[in-house]
Each structure stands twice: as structure tokens, then as C-alpha cells.
């Protein structure tokens, strides 16, 4: 299985919008899953078909970027001019009122989508994508609190907030930050199987919701009396 290159445009986004999904994806990574196997007790058959992800944090240049939240500063691992070909691009959510996407980032995003590559946006990251025109005529969602404003600012996008995420072709848009992790969970399950998702999510003690926000993605467990037990089983 060839490595999957995943990139995130690095600008002043809310940390969890990108770090949450990437941490979940990294928990699926064969190298990471294998290294922690003595601790987690992951089954060999699960580890054997785990994917290999390579992550890139893409700046306009190599200058460190201080994030909108959490007082975190990230140093880019690549620039838009030298980034390897990506399979997946993740866009986190900035302040949708005052943020302006750098033209180099905008061009990078447009080319990625035009090439038919997979785009994930999380939270107000959909506003970033909308600002480049790639969401025109597309179905998309966004953080519920930004919904009314974005309908006014980007009227050519078919905005909705009745689902936790929306898929339109190669563009996946997630609502609030954790809804983006739910969206990524669904993608993991569909592409790599429930066992990979279960193992990865257990490593984070995270339980994903479905597209309607219901906790029914992972199998439930019950005791002999029918009382629900914690979903994850730890060694």
C-alpha cells in the first residue's frame, strides 16, 4: 500500500480543527500502531493492513505560525513551492470575519481541488475554501455559529447545517471542530475498515458520532443485565 500524503495549510486556525483529525489519522498509521502494539494489544491482523500516512504542514514560507487558539506555534514542514504531491488537504478554521487567505495558499488549494484530490475542511475552514471559489455551486456545511453569516458572504455555496458533515464530490466539509473528527472517522472506516477505526479511536479514548450526531459508529457493549458498558475495551 503506497503512502498517503496528507497536508494542512498552515495559517492562524483553531488548533483542534487540524490537530484533532491529524492525531486520529496518525493513530491509524501502521508505524505508530505497531510501535504501541505492546501497550495497546492491537491485533496483528489489524496492524498488518493499517495505512501509512505522511503529514505536511504547509506554510507560505518557513516562518513559524502562531495559531488562533491554545498559544501554539507551528513551524512549517514544507512551503507551497516545495510541498510534495498531496493526496489529501485539510483546512482548519480561522476567525471567519477577519481572516484573509494568502494568495499562494489560495492558489495551492484551487489546484489541489481542480486535480480531483480530496479536500477536508473543518469548522470555519469551509469559509476559507469558499473564499477561493472552490465551493461555488457545491453543498457544504460549516460551524453552526457561522452559518447565517456565510450564507450572506458566500451566497453561491449551498450551505446547510442539518448534518455533521457534507460530502460533495472530492470536497468534504465538517461542522464544528469535533464534527470534523467524526467526518474523518467515517472516511477511515469506509477506506480502511472498522477494526482500524476502532483501534485508532481507542488509543485516543474517542468515540465518533455518525453524520446525524448519534453515537452508533462503534459497536455497543452490554453486561448480562443489559446495562451499557464503555465502548472501548482496554488490555
Describe this structure in words.
The protein is an alpha/beta fold. It is built from 9 helices and 13 strands. It has one domain (2-227): Rossmann fold (3-Layer(aba) Sandwich), CATH 3.40.50. It starts with a strand and ends in a 6-residue tail after the last strand. The strands form 4 sheets. The protein has a 7-stranded mixed beta sheet. The protein has a two-stranded antiparallel sheet with strand order 3-4. Helix 1 runs parallel beside helix 8 (177-192) and helix 1 (15-28) crosses helix 9 (194-203).
H-E order? EHHHHEEEEEHEHEHEEEHHEE
Assign a percent range to the helix content: 25-40%
The level 1 CATH classification is Alpha Beta
What is the CATH superfamily?
A: Class I glutamine amidotransferase (GATase) domain
Largest sheet: 7 strands, mixed
The whole-angstrom Rg is: 18 Å
Determine the N-to-C terminus distance. Answer: 29 Å
Total beta strands: 13
- Neighbour order of strands in the largest sheet: 5-2-1-6-7-11-10
Question: Which term fits the overall shape?
Answer: globular
Q: Average pLDDT value?
A: 96
Model regions low in confidence, pLDDT < 50 over at least 5 residues: none
Count structural domains.
1
Helix/strand class: alpha/beta
- Based on the structure given, which CATH architecture is correct? 3-Layer(aba) Sandwich
Question: Count of DSSP helices?
Answer: 9
